[in-house]
TrEMBL record:
It comes from Blepharisma stoltei. This is Calcineurin-like phosphoesterase domain-containing protein. The lineage of its organism: Eukaryota, Sar, Alveolata, Ciliophora, Postciliodesmatophora. Pfam families: Metallophos (PF00149). The keyword Transcription regulation does not apply. The keyword Glycoprotein applies.
Length: 439
């Protein structure tokens, strides 16, 4: 009955004014130590399977370090800035990965791996991150999704009784902030909801579609059929949100992030119901870019992370939708210069709508603009004199001097194609020359 009620509610009209934040990949590191540096993940303890033997450094970094996850001070700083921008947004999207990359594998002070203790650290992390929302935005609706680092091991979905208890914990923690949500959350961590203004949201658990999951999973197919049924039944447009998008990683060899069968099924659904979809939002990659959805006018909009784990500057995004005018502002915190910087979509591209097809056309014709886009995506354009060589090595794993043609193709092809086979054809099937990394 709840799902039936949701599908009958008419969504927000196009003329209504909306403003909201998108924050993702906070990766709050409960073990962060300000006097330990990135070779040790900024930890005073090791992690299971790695011989780090951490030693302290002479300098301290209370607000975080590049290549480490977020201390609470950095996470709180982001929320303070969000509140300064708008203390009463219509809603906030949390696109996954509240938990740091290695929380589930931390060794204790005695150098011993205690799996049950680390599970409690994961749950404690969720609680502390949620408390940031209730502290800074007590009256704002939150719409969260589950990320690949949010379980008890990377990319793995808790199963059985443990899985039920895990989802029950998140339901009890999040549901007061979400409000209405379909009962599918307790089935697989995905749900549909509606904002106070009447906007439909379809919130996916994209972990089920990941190439890192043991396939096939009946839950993955069930979730996609549920997505189809939601879009088919909804009278008005919906926004789809997820953590991992169904595209190809831009770094190195361009590894696919979803299993190919699920990419095909997702594209089939989205293409069939494109007129019922307003936006598709994702996180995961730690930098802000986009992926065109072939055969449609839609794009998957990927967002910058709070965590500086991949050498990026921390950031979040603020959207303003006003009738036929759409814009966002990226807020980037420069860890070197210790200050906030902003860029708006409209100023960067001289567009008054979020038309990423037009942006792609601009980038494909202008190599200088493409390099600026890459640096800006990582929040590194705020660094004085940042070199293309550094950005390319960091973001693409490629040499700017000797691999320009390849790098340009990787960037543009990953924005143009979601299916890995199409991506390979686009870059000339040079996969063997490249290398990848995990998020």
């Amino acid at each position: 009955m709840k799902e039936l009620i949701l599908t009958l509610i008419v969504s927000i009209c196009s003329a209504q004014y909306l403003n909201f934040f998108v924050v993702t990949d906070i990766h709050y590191d409960i073990a962060y130590q300000q006097n330990y540096s990135y070779p040790y993940l900024c930890h005073s303890v090791g992690i299971d399977g790695e011989k780090l033997n951490p030693v302290p450094t002479n300098d301290t970094a209370p607000l975080g370090r590049y290549f480490c996850d977020s201390p609470m001070t950095l996470a709180a700083l982001a929320f303070q800035q969000m509140k300064a921008v708008n203390p009463n947004p219509d809603f906030i999207l949390l696109l996954g990965d509240s938990v740091a990359h290695f929380t589930s594998t931390l060794l204790n002070q005695q150098g011993v791996y205690d799996k049950e203790a680390d599970k409690n650290l994961v749950l404690s992390t969720f609680t502390k991150v949620t408390q940031l929302f209730t502290k800074y935005f007590p009256n704002t609706q939150l719409l969260p999704v589950i990320g690949n680092n949010d379980g008890f091991s990377d990319y793995q979905i808790p199963e059985g009784v443990e899985g039920t208890n895990y989802l029950k914990f998140l339901y009890n923690l999040w549901s007061p902030l979400i409000g209405f949500m379909t009962d599918t959350f307790m089935k697989g961590g995905y749900y549909a909801s509606i904002t106070k203004g009447g906007l439909n949201f379809i919130c996916l658990n994209s972990n089920y579609f990941s190439t890192h999951i043991k396939l096939p999973l009946i839950e993955a197919d069930e979730q996609l059929e549920w997505l189809r049924s939601q879009l088919q039944a909804n009278r008005a447009k919906s926004i789809i949100i997820m953590h991992i998008s169904p595209g190809v990683s831009m770094y190195g060899k361009g590894d696919p992030d979803w299993d190919n069968d699920y990419v095909t099924k997702f594209l089939s659904i989205v293409t069939a119901f494109q007129s019922k979809i307003s936006y598709i939002f994702a996180g995961h990659y730690h930098f802000g870019f986009f992926q065109l959805v072939p055969g449609t006018q839609l794009s998957i909009i990927v967002h910058p992370s709070v965590s500086p784990f991949f050498g990026n500057n921390p950031g979040f995004r603020y959207y303003t939708l006003n009738g036929n005018t759409q814009d966002y502002i990226d807020y980037t915190y420069d860890l070197n210069q210790t200050g906030w910087y902003t860029h708006s979509f409209s100023q960067m591209y001289n567009l008054d709508t979020l038309n990423f097809t037009s942006v792609y056309s601009m980038l494909s014709k202008n190599f200088t603009m493409l390099n600026q886009f890459l640096a800006r995506s990582y929040g590194l354009d705020v660094e004085p004199g940042i070199a293309n060589e550094y950005v390319w090595n960091l973001a693409l794993g490629l040499n700017y001097t000797t691999q320009q043609s390849l790098g340009r193709s990787v960037m543009l092809c990953s924005m143009q194609y979601l299916a890995f086979s199409d991506f390979q054809k686009c870059i000339g099937n040079v996969r063997g020359l490249l290398r990848g990394r995990n998020h």
